[in-house]
């Protein structure tokens, strides 16, 4: 059945029907999927706040001047902004390395910390790099710890039992990622945005992310920022109810999505990870190394060729997504709670990310 027919049908859980449709669809047939690299139809150019971010601050975050960004909106989705890869050449590499080498380490929290002894989850990068570097194409090879990584939380850590954040489960938010997020938010009209919580998702070609709404933050007036690196994906953006059929769109390496206003609390999901459309192991935007002369005050750091070889091997079959949120409004505090330590228990690896063997798609609470 064609996607257009499924979209017109609506009715009970129209979102789930389209999720399954794109989950099973031939990756070479992307008719009906919005591609912002060839905008048209319901896509229109979106205006940014160019004066809110200096060129110097953009450079410090590894971004092009905001005046050069290509930002788009989508008819029917006010507050949704899609920014087609605004990163300077080579600068995506910093964020990929951080997501694989630094951010998964304690005091941040990842899925492996919940299922393995503490001594076995120390230095995931060091334990995985040689295995990844030597990895061939056989699916029978054992997976490294980094390949078993499914999610990492930063800043305020989500309580999976109560589905809330709390004051007593918090670790320092990475300063480089906070700076990047602040520049993107300001360019989209949200000056003063504070990056207080981050959820990193690690996808492979058999991964998907279930239908959900990000509503646990106490302040919904601030946007949700989403950054993608590596292989491509299909993203579904729906309505305020699951009965509303979603719009399918492509996300490629370096692309940024901003969900604000009306679009902040819409249902969304990732049914499918796709090979990058260029047909190469990695998209061309990841081929170039960081420039040797980074600007003064840059939050980016150079990495060794050896480190990038590990990252590149990982990304040949994977996609990394960072979603950044402001949890509290200025001056807002968490309500008093009793009987909880704020940490809770996270979902199992299988219920969080769904793989090709999963028979039932469970909704999750993060992007």
Automatic annotation (TrEMBL):
InterPro entries xrefs: Alkb, AlkB-like, AlkB-like_sf, Oxoglu/Fe-dep_dioxygenase_dom
E.C. designation(s): 1.14.11.33, 1.14.11.51, 4.2.99.18
Composition-biased stretches (Basic residues): 358-367
Binding site for Fe cation: 212, 214, 268
Leader sequence residues: none
Catalytic reactions on record: an N(6)-methyl-2'-deoxyadenosine in DNA + 2-oxoglutarate + O2 = a 2'-deoxyadenosine in DNA + formaldehyde + succinate + CO2; an N(3)-methylcytidine in mRNA + 2-oxoglutarate + O2 = a cytidine in mRNA + formaldehyde + succinate + CO2; an N(1)-methyladenosine in tRNA + 2-oxoglutarate + O2 = an adenosine in tRNA + formaldehyde + succinate + CO2; a methylated nucleobase within DNA + 2-oxoglutarate + O2 = a nucleobase within DNA + formaldehyde + succinate + CO2
Keyword Amino-acid biosynthesis: no
Cofactor remark from the record: Binds 1 Fe(2+) ion per subunit.
Chain spans, region Disordered: 331-367
UniProt-listed GO biological process terms: DNA repair; oxidative RNA demethylation; positive regulation of gene expression, epigenetic; regulation of translational initiation by tRNA modification; RNA repair
Cofactor: Fe(2+)
Keywords from the UniProt entry: Dioxygenase, DNA damage, DNA repair, Iron, Lyase, Metal-binding, Multifunctional enzyme, Nucleus, Oxidoreductase, RNA repair, Transcription, Transcription regulation, Translation regulation
Subcellular location: Nucleus
Residues in Fe2OG dioxygenase domain copies: 191-328
Top-level division of the source organism's lineage: Eukaryota
Subunit description: Monomer. Interacts with DNAJB6.
PANTHER family, per the entry: ALKYLATED DNA REPAIR PROTEIN ALKB-RELATED, NUCLEIC ACID DIOXYGENASE ALKBH1
Record's protein name: Nucleic acid dioxygenase ALKBH1
